[in-house]
From TrEMBL:
<dbReference type="Pfam" id="PF01717">
    <property type="entry name" value="Meth_synt_2"/>
</dbReference>
<dbReference type="GO" id="GO:0008270">
    <property type="term" value="F:zinc ion binding"/>
</dbReference>
<dbReference type="GO" id="GO:0032259">
    <property type="term" value="P:methylation"/>
</dbReference>
<dbReference type="GO" id="GO:0003871">
    <property type="term" value="F:5-methyltetrahydropteroyltriglutamate-homocysteine S-methyltransferase activity"/>
</dbReference>
<keyword id="KW-0489">Methyltransferase</keyword>
<keyword id="KW-0862">Zinc</keyword>
<dbReference type="GO" id="GO:0009086">
    <property type="term" value="P:methionine biosynthetic process"/>
</dbReference>
<keyword id="KW-0479">Metal-binding</keyword>
<protein>
    <submittedName>
        <fullName>5-methyltetrahydropteroyltriglutamate--homocysteine methyltransferase</fullName>
    </submittedName>
</protein>
<dbReference type="InterPro" id="IPR038071">
    <property type="entry name" value="UROD/MetE-like_sf"/>
</dbReference>
<feature type="domain" description="Cobalamin-independent methionine synthase MetE C-terminal/archaeal">
    <location>
        <begin position="3"/>
        <end position="322"/>
    </location>
</feature>
<keyword id="KW-0808">Transferase</keyword>
<dbReference type="InterPro" id="IPR002629">
    <property type="entry name" value="Met_Synth_C/arc"/>
</dbReference>
Length: 349
């Protein structure tokens, strides 16, 4: 298959689930009850992606309150001065008052999350988690001489999770760094941390860098040229970037910067509830094909779909799949071999 379609990670959180999550933090719903509800919501999110025709699905990240707390709250040595929230999506105040203890195996439970998803779909799965650079930015106070050292310690925690995920059968892992665009001068530290996470873990690795997606609004603006040349040292197979909202003026940055690996092409604007047409999606893909070969393109929304109404998210994925199919039809029959669950494709001459 040329141009496989996928998602970045998150899925819309229904209002009833928002209420239940918030009630949990106010002491009205038990963790056991909430876990049962999460299971149901994740199965529905998987089914929605399958019905839309998405080739590589996710769990929708529906167990996570936001992009940070699910991870930091589980890291041994991280302290939450106040563990209640007024609204589930709020961030905790987090401190690290003493050096984090040595990593002794996985502690965040991500492998169990993956296994649940694996049990409920026969499609390839992308499993994503927030990267160490972004996690460190949400730590209010810490004991380390520099924040870069905290980033490296968190990378070691995430490496243990990656090892556990691979052991449970995960073949596609993605590191999300939504805060990196706000600290472009620290790209070198972030890449070093990414390489600590992926070290020796033999899966297909993606790195997602966007401009933030809190409440469907960008946190920063800019261009992807800040990634280069440092990102060339990242030991990942794919850069997953947003182009649907921003347009494709940054596409030449990838070529000029020397990126010769896969590109996760954002073709759906997740910050606008209006549903694109299949023709718009197809045109965005065709413009990218002028700079990136088809065998190196993966088609996805710009970011996670969390902040969209569910009906809009389903419709956007459906047109993404339809637009991709239009382009595939023009590319000729592929020849394919399979490595794990990922098609490796070369266009027939």
């Amino acid at each position: 298959m040329l141009l496989p379609t996928t998602v970045v990670g998150s899925w819309p959180v229904p209002e009833w689930l928002e209420r239940l999550k918030t009630d949990h933090y106010r002491g009205r719903v038990s963790r056991t009850q909430l876990d049962d509800v999460h299971d149901t919501a994740i199965k529905a999110a998987i089914k929605d992606q399958e019905l839309a025709g998405v080739d590589i699905v996710s769990d929708g990240e529906l167990r996570r309150d936001n992009d940070v707390d699910y991870f930091l709250a589980r890291v041994p040595g991280v302290v939450l001065p106040l563990s209640v929230k007024e609204f589930y999506y709020d961030y905790y105040t987090v401190t690290v008052p003493a050096p984090l203890p040595p990593v002794e195996g996985a502690s965040l439970g991500l492998a169990d999350d993956y296994a649940f998803t694996r049990a409920h779909t026969d499609r390839p799965i992308k499993f994503s988690f927030t990267g160490p650079f972004s996690l460190a930015q949400r730590v209010a106070e810490h004991v380390y001489p520099t924040r870069a050292e905290l980033v490296h310690r968190l990378a070691q925690v995430l490496h243990a999770e990656a090892v556990a995920l691979a052991a449970r059968g995960a073949t596609r892992l993605q590191i999300d760094e939504p805060y990196l665009a706000g600290h472009p001068q620290q790209i070198g530290d972030a890449v070093e941390a990414v390489n600590l996470v992926v070290d020796g873990v033999d899966v297909r690795w993606g790195l997602h860098v966007c401009y933030g997606n809190r409440y469907a609004r960008p946190s920063w603006e800019g261009h992807y040229d800040f990634l280069f040349p440092a990102v060339l040292d990242a030991r990942v197979d794919e850069l997953v970037l947003e182009f649907g909202r921003k347009g494709d003026e940054d596409l030449p940055v990838l070529a000029h910067g020397g990126w010769d690996r896969d590109v996760g092409l954002g073709v759906i604007d997740v910050k606008d509830p209006a549903v694109e047409s299949a023709a718009t999606v197809a045109n965005r893909i065709r413009r990218a094909l002028e700079l990136v070969p088809a065998e190196r393109l993966v088609i996805n929304p710009d970011c996670g779909l969390r902040n969209l109404p569910a009906a809009n998210a389903r419709a956007k994925l459906a047109v993404m799949v339809a637009g991709t199919a239009r382009v595939r039809e023009t590319l000729g029959p592929p020849t394919a071999t399979t490595v794990d669950d990922r098609p490796t494709v070369a266009t027939a001459s």
